[in-house]
Write a structure and sequence with these properties.
Low-confidence stretches: none
Distance between the termini: 44 Å
Helix content: 55-70%
Order of helices and strands: HHHHHHEEHHHHH
Strand order of the largest sheet: 1-2
Mean pLDDT: 86
Radius of gyration: 20 Å
Structural class: mainly alpha
Number of strands: 2
Strand content: under 5%
Largest sheet: 2 strands, antiparallel
Length: 233
């Protein structure tokens, strides 16, 4: 089943279809046997088997996020719990949660993706993030910002594929990670019932071949990768 998911990903199949397509290979594992039993020796129901398959699909689809930068991993976890809303009195929760990512609240506030002030906490939405952002202008670049600004540029009146291509041309090494973030955000937004948000991330995924083509064209026009930021010790 894992190989089937990877093959579908390489073929550019969107995440929702990839999830459905993985169920068949999962059922195939169970159908090799005349009987599947529970730990108490009772026959396993089809519903239980499907639940196990979907749990395994979830685990496979979320692999890889451990390699993202700490700010992005925090943002994904916070969105899953709280979304983009303002949460009164949650600053303490944010500070405690940040410890697991080896981050502090001051650096996160300065990163341009989160606000925790006077006891309140908020993950910034795309519309609340810095206007005109580009990787080359950001001294504290995060993959979360890259994904969010690409999502915003794709649907903006002054954006579209060409604008997305310019952003990606400045940071082409972020492509695979941005797609991973888009997949996770689609999954989480769907689970949270935020259908408009899920649609944005699904659109980013399905538009990705066009974005990559636009990035190549932008590179030919002189848009080049932004210099890597050095860590100071």
């Amino acid at each position: 089943m894992q190989q089937a998911i990877l093959d579908h990903q390489k073929a550019g199949i969107p995440l929702p279809d990839r999830r459905q397509a993985a169920i068949g290979p999962g059922i195939g594992v169970f159908s090799k046997y005349a009987m599947i039993r529970e730990s108490d020796d009772s026959p396993m129901s089809v519903a239980t088997a499907l639940a196990l398959i979907n749990r395994e699909i979830d685990a496979i689809l979320t692999e890889g996020t451990e390699d993202l930068d700490a700010e992005t991993r925090f943002a994904l976890e916070w969105y899953q719990q709280f979304g983009y809303g303002l949460h009164k009195g949650r600053a303490g929760d944010a500070i405690q949660q940040l410890q697991g990512f080896n981050l502090d609240i001051n650096s996160l506030n300065a990163s341009g993706l989160f606000h925790a002030r006077q006891g309140d906490a908020k993950l910034l939405s795309r519309g609340e993030m810095e206007d005109g952002w580009t990787p080359s202008k950001d001294a504290t670049f995060t993959l979360w910002e890259m994904a969010q600004h690409l999502a915003r540029a794709l649907t903006a009146e002054d954006g579209g594929l060409a604008k997305c291509g310019q952003l990606l041309a400045e940071k082409p090494t972020a492509a695979a990670d941005v797609l991973l973030i888009a997949e996770r955000m689609f999954e989480m937004a769907t689970t949270r019932g935020e259908n408009d948000e899920a649609l944005v991330w699904n659109q980013l995924q399905t538009s990705w071949p066009g974005i990559e083509t636009a990035a190549d064209e932008a590179n030919e026009r002189g848009y080049s990768p932004a210099p890597e930021q050095s860590n100071l010790f």
